[in-house]
């Protein structure tokens, strides 16, 4: 029996009803019935969550669920027999009681065992939390930046593609003898030596260690040997050990969701051979900084291998054999540098050959330095090159303890940037190492503090990417079947982040423009505490800790602070009291990297944020927004991602236009407890963009939605419980973009939608059921419609509409996930 049939039939709900009746009637079966009621009560909300997640399960998990469904079917039949049995038939009742006890044990084992049912519900959350974030910009990019093109496609799309091409070309240059030699040696350690359970790749920062590790993971021979059971984890300088251990153990046992929920079944201490063996598995631990951390992440189990990638050489008792990454040869260095500086693999005739070779020589064979410095000199005059050479020559030869000298060399690539571009690069040090930065967060921050508009911010982003100072990452959206959406975020090599920190942390701590914590710590830096007698003149303040209580903060004054970034990992977090002393604060970013939503305390500090324009909340419980407590009169953009919001959206106390009188953009993404929007949202007459995405319990929109006359963008992506749109939607006279993709229960569109005179683009992939003849008639009235994205099976219906709508372009969506 299919998994969806099992849940659709609601066997568990029916069984629960029967058990309640048994508990009241049968003395012999009362104890078993009560225990089963408890177990199934815990199971029902999880069943409901899986039912609407839309995630296809593995064959093994599907089989386990099928067997469990048969157990519940048998339980339902047994419950009916118990209720039908007369009190006088003692022998039969004793037999039924024993069967009830057996059923109780079977259900209890499933709920509390290694394949506990609540883990299955978290498969959906695991899918999207793995890559940690979502395509929040697609509609807005199309609307605002349609005129900004790079090549033939959209500017961001093309920038990402260009980076992918550049990366492939770079690999082609350095992937000759050097990379092949490294691959072969590491492969021999991994698949040719059964006696080596832990092996390593060792090399200085920027030497290409991670590139080599990625190539190993892509190698067909390696993938075949491990049957594609390869897990790549970035550890970093301030790792969450508990979460990393849980992810590894979950991967080894086949319960990948464990790493995203709890550690109930995670064995403690070091795992040795007594745990037995399983299928061949490779776990890659990248960017490991500490022996004590490494020892906690190595599980010594037969058929399980660990590849450790680090700047440090660990004892052979822990890492049995190591490959040291070789720096590039002279010819390889010259080719890679020329590719970055000239777009070809050799020195062009118009260039000063001697000058080029001197600069290449000073990069000391480091791939990262060659790429970054080469990119910074591209299209620059010869005098500019000569100045760069002089700066490079002041450095000392690179040795194993080269870090500061490497940073000084690479600082040259930043010093020649335009002032605003340089400032934007330095801002990247505000975010934790090895974490993806949502594009939205970065753009919002730059717009608020550098007096630029979004178009210029995006242009700066592309310039930094072109100079290899950051990486634009485009990943297929995970967790949503058949999706063709992409998320775009920013990552940075840890050496480049170190460079941003190195340049930002110069000078007196009270006078720095950016006050940044380089890595996660249990407390604020002592240097900050020693200087609290004077105000801190930082424009950006970034804190990265675990749980913070009221007593963990000390008083600090920030008269010039405009951006505050709070990065943390915990279940509770006391907001810093010094927010009261940030009178110019414009952007507040609160990101919890823990496994569950954190409870925010001291939310009353928000009452003093009169100038706050942008607020980003991620993976927290949003406190109740009451009119006297919170009033953000200048807030323009509010984003709530992976949050619990039901308490904050209490309609009886919430007056949104009073709290947010200037709100122009509202984003609610992956908030699984959002069922209805507060009615007062219709009175926020300043709202221009409303994005409600991946909210799987949202069941209806306010009837008066049409009051929002300034609304230009309405995104309702992946809201499967949404069954209809309010007729008043036809009154949104300014609406230009409508996204109803993956609203799988949306059966039709209201006739009034034909009144949307300004609608230019519509995304309706994976909701093809709405394309009835009456809907086609309604859609034919959208004379301003220029582009529609739909599935292949309904594209012919849109092709027919094209005959009466000559300016319409029909884009057939690609399907990235297949059953």
TrEMBL record:
Residues 1-149 form the RPW8 domain. It holds the Pfam family NB-ARC. SUPFAM superfamilies: L domain-like, P-loop containing nucleoside triphosphate hydrolases. Keywords: Plant defense, Repeat. Belongs to the disease resistance NB-LRR family. This is RPW8 domain-containing protein.
């Amino acid at each position: 029996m299919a998994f969806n049939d099992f849940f659709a039939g609601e066997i568990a709900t029916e069984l629960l009803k029967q058990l309640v009746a048994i508990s009241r009637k049968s003395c012999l079966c009362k104890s078993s019935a009560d225990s089963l009621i408890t177990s199934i009560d815990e199971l029902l909300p999880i069943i409901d969550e899986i039912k609407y997640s839309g995630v296809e399960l593995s064959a093994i998990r599907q089989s386990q669920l099928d067997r469990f469904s048969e157990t519940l079917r048998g339980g339902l039949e047994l419950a009916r027999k118990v209720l039908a049995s007369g009190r006088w038939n003692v022998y039969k009742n004793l037999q039924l009681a024993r069967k009830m006890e057996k059923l109780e044990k079977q259900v209890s084992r499933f709920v509390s065992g290694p394949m506990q049912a609540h883990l299955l519900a978290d498969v959906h959350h695991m899918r999207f939390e793995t890559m940690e974030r979502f395509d929040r910009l697609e509609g807005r990019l199309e609307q605002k930046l349609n005129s900004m093109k790079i090549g033939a496609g959209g500017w961001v799309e093309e920038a990402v593609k260009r980076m992918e091409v550049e990366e492939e070309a770079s690999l082609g240059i350095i992937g000759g003898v050097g990379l092949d030699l490294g691959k072969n040696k590491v492969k021999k350690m991994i698949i040719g030596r059964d006696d080596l359970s832990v092996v390593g790749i060792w090399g200085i920062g920027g030497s290409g260690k991670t590139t080599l590790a990625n190539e190993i993971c892509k190698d067909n021979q390696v993938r075949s040997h491990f049957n594609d059971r390869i897990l790549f984890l970035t550890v970093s300088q301030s790792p969450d050990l508990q979460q990393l251990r849980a992810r590894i153990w979950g991967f080894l046992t086949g319960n990948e969701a464990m790493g995203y929920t709890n550690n109930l079944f995670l064995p403690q201490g070091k795992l040795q051979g007594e745990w037995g063996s399983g299928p061949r598995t490779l776990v890659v631990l990248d960017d490991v900084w500490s022996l004590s951390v490494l020892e906690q992440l190595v599980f010594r189990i037969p058929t399980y291998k660990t590849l450790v990638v680090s700047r440090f050489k660990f004892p052979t008792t822990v890492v049995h054999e190591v490959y040291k990454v070789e720096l590039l040869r002279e010819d390889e260095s010259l080719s890679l540098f020329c590719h970055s500086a000239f777009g070809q693999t050799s020195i062009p005739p118009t260039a000063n050959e001697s000058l080029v070779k001197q600069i290449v020589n000073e990069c000391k064979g480091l791939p990262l330095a060659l790429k970054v410095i080469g990119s910074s000199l591209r299209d620059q005059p010869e005098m500019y090159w000569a100045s760069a050479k002089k700066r490079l020559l002041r450095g000392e030869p690179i040795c194993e303890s080269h870090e500061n000298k490497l940073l000084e060399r690479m600082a040259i690539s930043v010093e020649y940037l335009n002032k605003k571009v340089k400032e934007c690069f330095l801002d990247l040090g505000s975010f934790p190492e090895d974490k993806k930065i949502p594009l939205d967060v970065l753009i919002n921050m730059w717009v608020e503090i550098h007096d630029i508009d979004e178009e210029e911010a995006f242009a700066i982003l592309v310039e930094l990417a072109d100079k290899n100072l950051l990486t634009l990452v485009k990943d297929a959206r995970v967790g949503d079947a058949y999706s063709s959406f992409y998320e775009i975020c920013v990552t940075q090599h840890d050496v480049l982040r170190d460079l941003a920190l190195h340049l930002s942390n110069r000078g007196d701590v009270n006078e720095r423009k950016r006050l940044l914590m380089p890595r996660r710590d249990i407390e604020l830096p002592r240097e900050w505490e020693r200087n609290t007698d004077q105000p801190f003149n930082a424009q950006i303040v970034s804190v990265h800790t675990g749980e913070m209580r009221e007593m963990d903060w000390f008083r600090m004054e920030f008269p010039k602070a405009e951006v505050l970034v709070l990065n943390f990992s915990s279940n509770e977090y006391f907001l810093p009291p010094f927010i009261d002393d940030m009178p110019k604060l414009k952007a507040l970013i609160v990101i919890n990297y823990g496994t569950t939503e954190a409870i925010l305390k001291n939310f009353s500090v928000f009452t003093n944020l009169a100038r706050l324009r942008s607020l980003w909340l991620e993976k927290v419980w949003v406190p109740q927004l009451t009119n006297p407590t919170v009033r953000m009169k200048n807030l323009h953009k509010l984003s709530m991602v992976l949050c619990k919001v039901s308490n904050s959206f209490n309609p009886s106390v919430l007056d949104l236009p009073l709290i947010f009188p200037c709100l122009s953009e509202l984003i609610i993404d992956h908030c699984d407890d959002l069922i209805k929007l507060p009615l007062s949202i219709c009175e926020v007459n300043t709202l221009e963009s409303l994005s409600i995405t991946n909210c799987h319990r949202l069941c209806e929109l306010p009837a008066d939605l049409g009051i929002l006359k300034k609304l230009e963008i309405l995104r309702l992506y992946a809201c499967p419980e949404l069954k209809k749109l309010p007729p008043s939607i036809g009154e949104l006279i300014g609406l230009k973009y409508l996204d109803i993709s993956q609203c799988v229960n949306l059966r039709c569109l209201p006739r009034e939608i034909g009144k949307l005179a300004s609608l230019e683009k519509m995304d309706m992939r994976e909701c093809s059921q709405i394309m009835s003849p009456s809907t086609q008639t309604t859609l034919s009235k959208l004379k301003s419609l220029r582009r529609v994205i739909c599935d292949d099976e309904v594209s012919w219906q849109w092709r027919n509409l094209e005959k009466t709508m000559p300016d319409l372009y029909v884009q057939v969506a690609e399907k990235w996930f297949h059953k």
